[in-house]
């Protein structure tokens, strides 16, 4: 899952580990490996026990899958089905731990002297080592789209992906038919267009279903159609006004559409309910509403109201300290010295955990967006060296997050951050470094607008 939804679906690592173990027992290796990677992506860096468990499980599953592929490749080659064998070889090579293992895999289809193994030799080797191996179609079926996953697997994945939700939301999702849950699983895995297709089919038969409209809206927004997402979420709210997740999601997307005042007004009403009835919400959902309301107020240039709300919820112990919010509040109030100090403490792994409000904090770690916001701040006050450093760290954090969770790198975010880095380098007089960034971008087809903007800034 990506970006703005991490606060909703950021938990559940233990449940995902259990799901991965079950998938491994069923020899659903790709799904098991992907599930462990998602779990690792949800664990904080300092959870050594959880990370050790995940790394061990990942190593075991990967090793089993590679041997499974080796057996299948040998069988396919023995049958003369070289196209399928090469397809599986490409998959095996993508999991190779080092060059030596790659070389071992490559010899599965070719002798060291470059001569192809004969079907007879390969068949003899396969017979000795791979009784009952699966065919390529079997392997492909195990890594096929969600439509080919059986209902039991969809149920297990739904159970994992709903773990961070409120209990009533989980029950509502499980109460709906499997087609809806397949769409929910696809959305949870970041496959937004596929999710929108299935959820759209579900909505054709249940046009006023609030959860169908909710997740179809999220899927459409995730695939880039944010205005349509806002519209569908509005329909979900009209269908079920008490559906908090729909209101919260709509507010977040309005912020993304640069409509912060609308977002602040919508989220503010939700925030009033949280403040009046805090026990109706779990701690994660409560924090979601409060943080996004404060964020919307800051985006709407209402730092005074944001600070007032932040101090209130901190004083009532409804929210842990958030140094990113504190830095932005300080800047909004014109206190640049405090803002700079808080940003540096937050983005320094060795930094202390104090906060400007004075309550201390079990603070969250920085996300890619935090590095970008800090860099934007330092650029606004003319500290271009710090701005460049944080843009570079933000781009690296985006890449690492994608590698950890097995989700695609959000290219639009990466290009935006790299463009801002180039602009900072130009401000520092490092035009050659900025030109190298433009050249890297120009290798993309089609050439992104960010490369054109860098060239324009360079004056050519």
Please tag this protein with its features:
460 residues; Serine Threonine Protein Phosphatase 5, Tetratricopeptide repeat; mainly alpha
Describe the structure.
With 460 residues, the protein is an all-alpha fold. Among the domains are: 3-144, no CATH class; 367-460, Tetratricopeptide repeat domain (Serine Threonine Protein Phosphatase 5, Tetratricopeptide repeat). Helices cover 70% and strands 0% of the residues. It is globular and about 70 Å long. The model is unreliable at 110-146 and 351-362 (pLDDT under 50).
From the N-terminal CA to the C-terminal CA, the straight-line distance is 39 Å
Mean pLDDT: 82
Biggest β-sheet strands, sense, barrel: none
Number of helices: 24
Summing up helix and strand content along with how strands pair, one would put the structural category as mainly alpha
Q: Summarize the amount of helix as a percent range.
A: over 70%
Total E-strand runs: 0
Rg on CA atoms, Å: 25 Å
Enumerate the spans where pLDDT stays under 50 for 5 or more consecutive residues.
Answer: 110-146, 351-362
Shape: globular
Percent of residues in beta strands: under 5%
Order of helices and strands: HHHHHHHHHHHHHHHHHHHHHHHH
